[in-house]
Design brief:
- Helices cover about 25% and strands about 40% of the residues.
- The chain has about 160 residues and is of the alpha+beta class.
- It is rod-shaped.
Length: about 160
């Protein structure tokens, strides 16, 4: 019985005319690949290349971080309104730290009313400086645990402040 052979033919146009060329089975995948590539126009090849470069650039931009000083993270942790809970006082004592580096120290005495003291403040690592003006400057080490701010002066007991929500 005769074997059935499958023969692939390719039609080629040349300067003389058109010719039919037989192809071997081994060359068939190469022809498919080259046919797919030939479907991409020069414009679409440039578009694919540009898209690839944009994806690589996007990945690079989102992967790298700045080598800037990380003091900003400390700065924003202190921000907010805090009520003093220790050491105990007869007055209500509040600290308000604003984003712009200014704040208020409020002493609210039920007998005499509230007194407000403005200050400027800044953080460097774990050091907090509060400047009330006129040479009245206080230095603290500080930490935040949950919603509690601890101010550690160079003298005496720490000042414990709870966040006001």
């Amino acid at each position: 019985m005769a074997a059935n052979n499958i023969v692939f033919l390719r039609v080629e146009k040349n300067t003389v005319g058109t010719s039919v060329v037989p192809l071997s089975v081994n060359s068939f995948p190469t022809i498919i690949d080259s046919t797919i590539m030939s479907l991409l126009t020069p414009f679409s090849r440039k578009a694919v290349k540009a898209l690839s470069l944009m994806i690589v650039a996007l990945i690079a931009m989102t992967s790298f971080t700045s080598c800037d000083d990380d003091d900003d993270e400390w700065y924003y942790t202190v921000e907010g309104s805090w009520e003093q809970v220790a050491p105990p006082t007869r007055e209500y004592v509040y600290y308000e730290f604003y984003e712009d580096g200014y704040g208020n120290y409020i002493v609210d005495d039920p007998r005499y009313g509230a007194d407000y003291y403005e200050f400027s403040w800044w953080v460097s690592g774990s050091s907090l400086t509060i400047d009330y003006g006129g040479g009245d400057v206080e230095y603290y080490s500080w930490s935040v645990q949950g919603s509690t701010l601890y101010l550690y002066p160079d003298y005496g007991n720490p000042i414990v402040l709870n966040a006001i929500h």
